[in-house]
UniProtKB/TrEMBL annotation:
Alphabetical list of SUPFAM superfamilies matching this protein: Macro domain-like (SSF52949)
Protein name, UniProt field: Macro domain-containing protein
Boundaries of every Macro domain copy: 1-111
Annotated PANTHER family: GANGLIOSIDE INDUCED DIFFERENTIATION ASSOCIATED PROTEIN 2-RELATED, GANGLIOSIDE-INDUCED DIFFERENTIATION-ASSOCIATED PROTEIN 2
Origin: domain of life: Eukaryota
Pfam families documented for this protein: CRAL_TRIO_2, Macro
InterPro entries from the UniProt entry: CRAL-TRIO_dom, CRAL-TRIO_dom_sf, Macro_dom, Macro_dom-like
């Protein structure tokens, strides 16, 4: 695992693929799948990377056909993204010029961009075997078959009874058919209640003048998208505390509902940049306010939120987030938190789509970093 450098990815995943022989093609394919799954898992779990680049694990020296290797790689990436949705925001496929056509063809099969490519994808995969959640080929001869139902409990226990000297009547045993499944129905009342409250909040917001709250820049939308095309929501703790203390909580929530309408339900997703610098208490907003903020953001925002970049987090804030996660109060939110030490790191994580575009940083945040640098220099001497 190496740094992404100038690629639009935080990490580059490298792995060594298997040698290829026609006789053992299936084994080589399974080994190659595991190479990519292991590399992507390491990038997500150990490196905490939201963006990663993948390089081909096999080349002509190992005898692996380029077109087959490309299909395996792209298929595995597709299955990984489906299984671990929300773990990665972007996967960059790297290949040399000689292999590029093969990888473009594979991408059009597993990531069709239009109706024409979708039809070609269906045609290409029509006669192919099924694939499991990791992208491995499912072969009928390797399937484990379980009988739908035992004829009686004695079929299962007869041999054991003779050996152990234990008698068991059929009436005492319960045999569960193998095909029995469980269906879990999700109660949608909470979601519907949240939708109703947000609709009411939006109606009230339309009749409110919240221009002064908007000018306070406590929560606002960055003008440019990031390089993946996601919107960037900026939250400034110092200004947020000031508004809440002055009794402007309801107007602030109305501003959020209006400002971010259509942003949080976009399937492309969005990220939050939380500048904790300058907060008086060093702690996050109250749980009550966070839950009201959930309503203002809309019922889908938990799924479309990709990452919360917390800048200059204090020990108190980290402890509070850890506690909320342990108590499962806001686990889905806490699991998406990424701590950022400096503004330079933040701009590296959240790159805007324009070449010369940079995140707007509050003046007090930049001043805080300058003070830290001066103090570090003084303590050194």
């Amino acid at each position: 695992m190496t740094s992404g450098g100038r690629l639009p990815a935080r990490r580059i995943a490298h792995c060594v693929g298997p040698r290829y022989a026609e006789k053992y093609a299936t084994a080589a394919e399974h080994a190659l799948v595991h190479c990519y799954v292991s590399a992507l898992t390491k990038a997500v779990d150990e490196c905490k990377a939201r963006t990663v680049a993948c390089t081909p694990a096999c080349d002509e020296k190992k005898g692996y056909p380029s077109d087959s290797a490309a299909m395996v790689m792209v298929r595995t990436i597709r299955r990984f993204l489906e299984k671990w949705s929300g773990k990665l925001d972007c996967v960059v496929v790297c290949a040399n010029a000689a292999e590029m056509d093969d990888y473009r063809a594979a991408l059009s099969v597993f990531f069709p961009r239009n109706d024409e490519e979708r039809k070609l994808s269906e045609e290409a995969l029509k006669d192919k075997p099924g694939y499991n959640e990791y992208g491995e080929m499912i072969l009928d001869e390797r399937r484990l078959r379980i009988a739908g139902r035992l004829s009686s409990a004695s079929d299962f226990t007869g041999g054991m009874n003779k050996t152990m000297g234990v008698s068991l009547d059929d009436s005492d045993a319960t045999v569960v058919p193998a095909e029995t499944g469980l269906t879990v129905s999700r109660d949608t009342r909470d979601v519907e209640d949240e939708q109703t409250r947000r609709a009411n909040l939006l109606r009230r917001a339309e009749s409110m003048d919240v221009s002064d709250v908007s000018d306070a820049k406590a929560i606002y939308l960055e003008k440019s998208r990031d390089y993946i095309g996601r919107r960037v929501v900026v939250v400034i703790a110092a200004f947020l505390e000031r508004l809440i203390k002055s009794g402007e909580e309801q107007r602030l929530l109305a501003h959020v509902a209006k400002e971010l309408r259509g942003v949080t339900d976009n399937p492309r997703g969005y990220v939050i940049v939380y500048h904790h610098t300058g907060g008086v208490y060093g702690a996050p907003p109250s749980l009550d306010f966070i839950r009201k903020l959930h309503v203002a953001l809309g019922p889908q925002h938990r799924d479309t939120l990709k990452t919360v970049f917390v800048v200059h987090a204090t020990a108190i804030l980290k402890a509070a987030i850890w506690t909320m996660d342990m108590l499962q109060l806001e686990s889905r939110l806490c699991n998406k938190v990424e701590y950022v030490e400096t503004v330079c790191d933040l701009r590296d994580y959240v790159r805007l789509e324009g070449i010369n575009e940079k995140l707007e940083i509050p003046a007090h945040v930049e001043e805080y970093e300058r003070d830290l640098a001066r103090n570090a220099q003084t303590s050194f001497w």
